Amino acid sequence: MHKKKIKATFAGPTTNSRRITTRRNDMEVNNEELRKRFNPEGSQLRRHQMRMLELLLATDAICRRHGIRYWLSSGTLIGAARHKGFIPWDDDLDIEMLEPDYQRLMKLMPHELPSTMALQNMDTDPDYFFFYAKLRDRRSLLDEGNNYGRTWKEQGIYIDIFHFYPQPLWIHKLSELLQGHAYTMCRKGHMGRVRMLTRFNRYVSFPLLRLAGSLSHAPLRHALGTPYEMPRFMEDIFPLSEMEFEGHMLPVPHNTDRMLTRIYGDWRKLPDLSTIHPHVTKLEI
């Protein structure tokens, strides 16, 4: 029996999330000035961010209902820790979870999403060749200019859902090499070859690599075939904590500072704002 569909709800940023400054560990960031510059209310970027927030809240509702553990990650986690919401110029959103939770979510999510959203993975979209999932908005059209998704069924605003399991670095690098050919073939328009290679890796080569990796005591890494290599450590993640993100309390790693420092170094420091460029080439909302 399918579970009852959820209705995605969104409450705007609270007063606290719009404070002039945010101070964390002697760090001060003028969020109001940054938002005026990069994502003022009503701007296309801010509308993009609010649509991603709707996707995140829908995911959060399903995860809480079923006891599925996830956490904000990467730039999204920096945004929570440094800005209490999106990094003002950020146009993507990432969450992470362990492999068992990911597999449960992939089974549950299609039956509990509102009609305005769609889960995108290899099972729901035959031309999709990424080894992680996206949750897509169906009321928008997004073009990132890389041509990877030109034949995908869903092409709206999205959030990325990454999953992790233990594996040595050499195995992960080998998986990147094996699946990397799919990106090259996709750019050349050879989608039949992309599908064949992806199926071979999914059902033959990657299960063998996972078996080999299970024999070692390795840290957590992104799923095989995912082009990211930085490890995660259980002691940094669990037990999960919560942090404010756009007026909502959402799961974050137990030691956010240590995780972000491992990945980015001095994550508290703002980048050179003159070098910031959006990922999105074209967006219709």
Can you tell me about this structure?
- By secondary structure, the protein is of the alpha+beta class.
- The protein is 39% helix and 18% strand.
- The chain is built from 8 helices and 12 strands.
- The chain has helices at residues 31-38, 44-66, 74-83, 99-112, 169-187, 191-213, 234-237, 256-264, and strands at 22-24, 27-29, 71-72, 94-98, 117-120, 133-137, 141-143, 158-166, 220-222, 241-245, 248-252, 282-284.
- The strands form 4 sheets. Strands 3, 4, 5, 6, 8 and 9 form a 6-stranded mixed sheet that branches. Strands 1-2 form a two-stranded antiparallel ribbon.
- Helix 3 (74-83) packs across helix 8 and helix 5 (169-187) packs antiparallel against helix 6.
- The chain starts with 21 loop residues before the first strand and ends with a strand.
- 35% of the residues are buried.
Q: In total, how many beta strands? A: 12
Radius of gyration: 19 Å
| Biggest sheet descriptor | 6 strands, mixed
Give the integer mean of the pLDDT values. Answer: 90
- Based on secondary structure, the structural category is alpha+beta
Query: What is the share of helical residues?
Result: 25-40%
The sequence of SSEs as H and E is EEHHEHEHEEEEHHEHEEHE
Low-confidence stretches: 1-21
* Measured distance between first and last alpha carbons: 34 Å
Beta-strand content bin:
15-25%
Which quaternary structure do these chains form? single chain
Query: Count the helices. How many?
Result: 8
> What spatial form do the alpha-carbon principal axes imply?
globular
